[in-house]
């Protein structure tokens, strides 16, 4: 993959990928995963950044990577050995060959899952009981994988689709790890007054062929976080995550195609506050 080079103190870093909200650099044998303050909704990056968002997501992910160290290896080499310009919002990582599946765990019904359930009574091929409504707690957490689209929208696939693509042993391990991380993370968050409705995880193979947790973990961009004391099925929930921005954007009349609308200052600040509150509740640390 082609890229641009820039100088750092140790030599050249190569910019190898610009995602909707993250940038990847190759630095020697390592990868630098740099989170920007950009925010994307409906697969469109909005023109207005959320100040501090990249650092909030990075530092929450770092906290979770450490929390789950006994569950699965992760890609983190260092959270401090990064160029000064990226301090606080970058991770120095081991390169991974990423599994081409978005691994999603759901404990509550919302978003794409709600829409599929309303049509078919299933989510990602998993049958659910009748009578559930928006925000309902599921009988048990379920694994609902999706495609990993480089362009356009991710689509639900079934567990059998993952088996066909990755092999049964890998598919079963992906499901097992996704549900274990979700259960442990949701239990911790619930003790801090936050319900984790769902979350998306990504895994890859390291150079020794070990399945490894990468990307981000249980952040406000990759999860739905709801205040436990305000949870009420049958309606939209208060969100400590980017659902707040999705709802605002949808309410503007925007047709969900580029370019996205400018985000007003009050929505920017409310989003930043919600991300910061999720970080503080989950980690017990004060956000500076």
From TrEMBL:
One GO cellular component term, please give it. cytoplasm
**Known EC number:** 6.3.2.6
Q: In which pathway does it act?
A: Purine metabolism; IMP biosynthesis via de novo pathway; 5-amino-1-(5-phospho-D-ribosyl)imidazole-4-carboxamide from 5-amino-1-(5-phospho-D-ribosyl)imidazole-4-carboxylate: step 1/2
Name the catalysed reactions: 5-amino-1-(5-phospho-D-ribosyl)imidazole-4-carboxylate + L-aspartate + ATP = (2S)-2-[5-amino-1-(5-phospho-beta-D-ribosyl)imidazole-4-carboxamido]succinate + ADP + phosphate + 2 H(+)
What keywords are annotated for this sequence in UniProt?
ATP-binding, Ligase, Nucleotide-binding, Purine biosynthesis
* Top-level enzyme category: ligase
Keyword Cell inner membrane in the entry? The reply is no
Gene label: purC
Enumerate the Gene Ontology biological process terms: 'de novo' IMP biosynthetic process
Q: Tell me the protein's name.
A: Phosphoribosylaminoimidazole-succinocarboxamide synthase
Q: What are the GO MF terms of this UniProt record?
A: ATP binding; phosphoribosylaminoimidazolesuccinocarboxamide synthase activity
- Asked whether the keyword Protein biosynthesis is assigned, the reply is no
Q: Where is the SAICAR synthetase/ADE2 N-terminal domain?
A: 16-257
Q: Which family does it belong to?
A: Belongs to the SAICAR synthetase family.
